[in-house]
């Protein structure tokens, strides 16, 4: 497929895509790190029970929220 834009524009597009991905990665990392206790509890519960109903899942999540 032939491009209709310059190498400079292609480089700027690549840089912006890289920036967007890096920002999204960092945000995801922060969310996972900040919720590690909840995620660990969820994983342990699923390993034990294998299946969770929606209500059980929501109760577990809510039990981990700060008061």
Write a concise synopsis of the structure shown.
The protein is mainly α and 67 residues long. It has helices at residues 7-34, 36-49, 54-63.
Detail the topology: elements first, then pairings.
Layout lengths: L6 H28 L1 H14 L4 H10 L4
List the defining traits of the structure above.
67 residues; 78% helix; 2 domains; mainly alpha; 3 helices
How large is the radius of gyration?
Answer: 20 Å
H and E order: HHH
Overall pLDDT level: 94
Major β-sheet, in short?
none
How many structural domains are formed by the residues?
2
Number of strands: 0
Low-confidence stretches: none
Range of helix content: over 70%
Q: What structural category characterises the helix and strand content?
A: mainly alpha
Quaternary state of this entry equals single chain
> Number of helix segments?
3
Morphology call: elongated
Strand content of the residues, in percent?
A: under 5%
Q: Tell me the distance between the termini.
A: 56 Å
């Amino acid at each position: 497929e032939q491009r209709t834009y310059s190498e400079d524009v292609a480089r700027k597009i690549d840089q912006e895509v890289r920036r967007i991905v890096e920002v999204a990665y960092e945000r995801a990392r922060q969310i996972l790190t900040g919720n590690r206790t909840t995620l660990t509890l969820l994983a342990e519960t699923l390993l034990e029970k294998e299946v969770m109903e929606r209500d059980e899942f929501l109760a577990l999540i809510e039990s981990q929220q700060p008061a």
